Amino acid sequence: MTFVIVPWLMPRLKARGIVGRDLNKSSKPEIAEMGGIAVVVGFFAGVSVLVALNGIQNIDLLNVSLSAVLGAAFVGMMDDLFDLRQRHKAFLPFVIALPFAAAADRHVVIPHLFEMNLGPWMLLAAALAITCAANAANMLEGFNGLGTGLGIIMALTLVILGLIHNRLDGVYLLVPLLGALIAFLYFNKFPAKIFPGDTMTLFMGATIAVAGMLSSLQVQTAFIFIPMIVEFFLKLRGHFKAENYCSESGNGFLEYHGRIESLTHVFMKHMRLTEQELVALIWGLEVAMCIIVISVDLIL
User: Is the pTM of this model over 0.90?
Assistant: First the structure.
């Protein structure tokens, strides 16, 4: 569904002026923005097919899960269109996630050690986790295919962990998300023909967080977000005003000359990298983190 929608969507977004400039290219070409719409539609089509074929025991929990992730996508769409303030992007997904938080299991599993019952505090904890994950996924972006690839790696890791522990509730969300992201990466990889926009990144982060909670993989999910958490604290240095883009792109290599306020700045400032190499490097960091999480989980 995503693969079919994107080619249809690109000229229509451009015709309506919903475009962004690829600032990491010397020519600064205009690229269709807000392609995450196709990912959201493909995801919901996938969930619908899974439910129709296999059914689900707790349909009410699935419904509030879908409302939380769709709400994050809606906030992202509003940001793409109207440029919301950072505090609004933090507050709105939190409020929209409250129904899911109210229905979520109150127990948090500490792998191989114990379980904690958060009781009524789970309402705040779950909603906060979803809005944090949504915004964290939105921060480490700005290069062709970067955020999409990170989402694929994270979702696949949670599928593997869900299979290891036989906790498959989150798979109803993760498998459709994987399919939609893989299809979108075909168009979003270097050189990008379409950008995901906050529509996709906020939706993707929220979906991964919700799926992690559904499969009682809260701790593992938090660990695979570590690169994004590092990005959060680096962005905090500049009061979230910094952009990930390079200062200039000469001969295909990215250069950055300002203050370091992003993981991408670290690599561009100290290494001679093309955009594809930078994206592959950050993907590699995420793969390494996910391998560590899976390995520790298996060893313990």
Answer: yes
C-alpha distance from residue 142 to each of 148, 149, 192 (Å): 11, 12, 11
Task: Report the share of the chain in percent with pLDDT over 90.
Answer: 79
Distance of alpha carbon 206 from alpha carbon 181, whole angstroms:
14
Phi-psi region of 54 (alpha: psi -120 to 50; beta: other; left: phi over 0): alpha
Are the C-beta atoms of 80 and 198 separated by less than 8 Å?
yes
Mean residue pLDDT across the chain: 93
Angle at 294 between CA 291 and CA 297, to 5 degrees: 145
Alpha carbons 225 and 153: distance in angstroms, whole number:
11
- Compute the distance between CA of residue 186 and CA of residue 195 in angstroms, rounded to an integer: 12
pLDDT at 113: 67
